[in-house]
Amino acid sequence: MKHVHFIGIGGYSMSGLALLLHRQGYRVTGSDVNPSSRTERLQAYGIRIEFMHKPENVQGADWVVYNTDVREDNPERQAAKDQSIPLFHRSEILAQSLAGHKAITISGTHGKTTTTTMIGTMLQDAGLDPTVLVGGEVPQFEGNVRIGQGSYAVAEADESDGTFLRYDPWIAVATNIEAEHLDHYRGQFSALIGSFRTYLERVPDDGLAVMGIDNLHLADLARVLQVPSVTYGLHKEAMVRAEHIELMGNQTRFQVQVHGHPVADAILSVPGIHNVVNSLGAMAAAHHAGVSWQQSARSLESFINAHRRFQVLLDHPVMIVDDYAHHPTEVRSTLSACRQRAHGRVYALFQPQRYIRTKNLWDEFVEAFGDTDVLYLTDIYAPAGELPLDGVSGERLAEDIAKSGKVVHFRQDMFKVAEDVVNILEAGDLFITMGAGNVYLVARDLAKKLGARGVLDQGM
C-alpha cells in the first residue's frame, strides 16, 4: 500500500484527488495552512492532515504530490527532493486515475466547473455511476468528488498551467478561450490557442471534441480539427443550439435543436444565458456517452450547481447571492443573470483577484459592471507570493469605473459593505458578492444580518 502525501491537500482539486486515492486503497496524508470544510471531510475519512508545511510531514511517503501554487522552496517539496521521494504534479496523478476510465475532461476560461457538474449529474441521473472530480462543492455529490463504479470519469482539465495536455480524454470539452494565464504561455495568446488545439486533437477515433463556438477562437479551431467533433452554442452554425429561449426568473426555458431539428424541451433551474450555453455543451458530451437528449433535459430541471456558482443564500424578500466570477466575461454574464432574477435594484460587491489579472484586463473590468445599480469594490485578493504592481489597486479601478457615471464605492474593509446596505435594501432588490477570494464571507454576513432583522418574513 503506497503512502501518498499531498502538499496543500485542502484545495478543491487536491482534496478530491486525495479522497479518490484513499478510496482506491492508498494511504493518504496531507498538509495545508488552514482548516476548511474540505480538510474536515478528509479527516472524517481518517486522512491525517498537518496544518503547517514542515519537512517531517513527508517522512515515510512513497510519493509526494504538489500543485502549481506550491513553490519549489516549499519545505516539504524540498524535503522530498532531498530524500529522493518521487514528486508528482497533481495533474500527473489525475492522468493516472483517469487512465482506467472513459475520460470526459472539460477545459476553458469560463464555465468548467458548471459544465463538469452538469455532465456528472446527467450521467449520474442516467444510472451510469460516474466518477466526477469538480473544482467546487456540489450538493448532489456531497462535496467536490463523486466516486462511482461505472466506466466514465468526468474531470476539469486546467489550461492555466498547460497541464490539460497530460490527459487522454475520450471526450474533450472546450467551453471558450480568452487571453488569460498568458504568463504560462510566454505572453503569447497564439500559444494558448495552439495548446487548446492539441488538447482537442487528443481524442480517439471513437471519441469526441465538444466546442463552444460562440467563442471566435473555438469557431476557428472547429473548422480545422481533424477529429470527430460537435459544436454548440447560440451561434447559427452550432450543431447543438438553443432556440425559443424564455427567461423566467430563476429558470430558463428553451428548445434544444441538433442540426436544426428539435430533440428536447428543457427547463434550466439556474439563471443566465451563459448557463444555457454551458448546458448545451454538457448535453452534447452526455449524448456521446449514451444519455438521451430528453434524459439530459430532465436532469437540467432539477440541476443544482456547485457552491459559489450563483449560490442563493437568501431568497425572499431580498435576494443575497454569491458567485465565483472573477474575470470580466464571467462578471458580465453573472450580472446579466442578476438582472434577469432581480425585481428591484442590483447591488454588487466585487473583489478583484491577482494584480497581474487586474492589470492585464483593466479596460474590460471597467466596462463589465453595466448591469449594476450600485457597485462596491474592495482591495485586490492576491495569492501568497504575488507582489503588488504599481498603480494597480481596487481603489484605482473604482475611480476609473466611476468615470462612466456608474455609482461606485470603494471599501478597504469589505465587511463594511454589509453595514452599508443592510438598512437600504428593499423587497425585490438583489445583492451579490463576486470574486475568487474570500468575498463570499460578506454575503454570508449580510444574510445573517438580514435574518436577524426578520427579513425572512413576508415584509421588511
Give the CA-based shape: globular
The strand count comes to 21
Query: What structural class do helix, strand and pairing data support?
Result: alpha/beta
Residue share in β-strands: 15-25%
On the 0-100 scale, what is the average pLDDT?
A: 92
Indicate the low-confidence ranges by residue numbers.
455-460
Distance between the termini: 59 Å
In CATH, what is the class of the largest domain?
Alpha Beta
CATH superfamily of the largest domain, please?
Mur-like, catalytic domain
Number of domains: 3
Helix percent band: 25-40%
Cα radius of gyration in angstroms:
22 Å
Largest sheet at a glance? 10 strands, mixed
CATH architecture annotation name of the largest domain: 3-Layer(aba) Sandwich
Strand order of the largest sheet: 8-7-9-6-10-11-12-13-14-15
Helical stretch count? 15
- Briefly note the CATH topology name of the largest domain: UDP-N-acetylmuramoyl-L-alanine:D-glutamate ligase
Oligomeric state as shown: single chain
GO biological process, one term: regulation of cell shape
Protein name: UDP-N-acetylmuramate--L-alanine ligase
InterPro entries: Mur-like_cat_sf (IPR036565), Mur_ligase_C (IPR004101), Mur_ligase_C_dom_sf (IPR036615), Mur_ligase_cen (IPR013221), Mur_ligase_N (IPR000713), MurCDEF_pg_biosynth (IPR050061), UDP-N-AcMur_Ala_ligase_MurC (IPR005758)
GO molecular function, one term: ATP binding
